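Training component of the fellowship. As part of building independent skills, the fellow (R.M.) carried out the full modelling exercise for a liganded target. The chosen ligand was iron/sulfur cluster. The inputs are recorded below so that the supervisory panel can assess the work.
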Amino acid sequence: MTTQAAPPVERKDFEATKKMKAVMGQYFKELEQGSQQGKKTAWCTSVGPAELLRALGYNVYFPENHGAMLGATRMATDLIPLANARGYSPDICSYLTSDIGSYLKGQSPLQKMGMSGPPRPDVLVFNTNQCRDVKDWFQFYAREWNVPCIGVHTPRSLGELDEPIIEDVAHQIRALVMPLEEIAGQKLDPAKLREIVVLSRRCTDLWKAVLETCANIPAPMTFFDGTIQMGPAVVLRGHPSAVDYYETLLAELKQRVADGIPAVPGERFRVYWEGMPVWGKLRDLSIQFASLHTCVVASTYCNSWIFDDLDPDDPFRSMARAYCRLFICRSEDAKEHYMEEMVAKYRVSGIIYHDAKTCPNNSNNRYQMPQRLEAKLGIPHLVIHGDLNDLRLYSEEQARTNIQAFIEQLAQK
Ligand code: SF4
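Fellow's submitted model of the complex:
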């Protein structure tokens, strides 16, 4: 049996997306206004202590989100060489190089939203749970603007999340409180922190439920939709607007499931995406998979904003546990176990690994995982070579051919 690429399929837009655009627009507007009105701004890595920063009244800005915007708008490829010329290698994180390039050139997708650009930080707060690059990235700006850069050094390749590790990370988060209070000019109110953790946990539970609707056959949403829909979970966890948004989206997805409305009309194949998105090619990939009647139903990437451990009754230790459970900082065994669960839960028949040249941390095909999982689960895999932001590292023709051949392989099975 062969599978023919069909003409582009008609897909129904999500009603909720209009609301998401409004929520994200409001977030960016408040960032700019807050900053102009003297509200302190903290830059935070994607799984940095955002709850703590919100509880202390900071504007919280996430440069990785800006990195993704630079990728999705395809501005990144032209900006990266500017950072390279300043000594940041073309081989390191292309979020870092495109973001620094954006700063050096004074160009940002935020300008199209009426902002002058990213807000100037009063403090930069990192967590190295994902990689060392985030700290190096923040240190560039710390030197540039002479602002403090503080954070958490999380151990990596974690197997079991042992108590001493959690206690150490919780201790590091607690140690941030005093310097952050000094910069914020206010004391941490434990009741406020509790309230933020409640909201953050609620956001995470809803986001998880949103993603889990895709366990249904047919799935109501694809990975490519998920990369857009995850915006509020990334930048607004701990804020009521994210909770409100995911309640709306979840209701719509449940209705789609009840009505049998598929994300990919005529869904025949279900696959898992492991690794970073190719931000500049989301639309093209989405169209190709849809034309092959293939739904990318789940991904490690979208799942990375699920923080089941958050507990308002034990904020510091639960933040530590949640931030350490992150897939990216786990051992090969733990990652493999997780992937097995995902394959079963989402009933996928193939796994696609994106080997992102500038992010070894999110490229899990390099230490034999695809071969081990294929032997164990009996489902095939495909490795796509590319990058999150640097499109010079991605061959569209090769990716298209390989995806087509992979779906043929699934059809023959
Ligand atoms: S995890 Fe990868 S993409 Fe994310 S900041 Fe680190 S190197 Fe960059």
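The panel noted the following from the submitted structure. The chain has 17 helices and eight strands. The mean pLDDT is 96.
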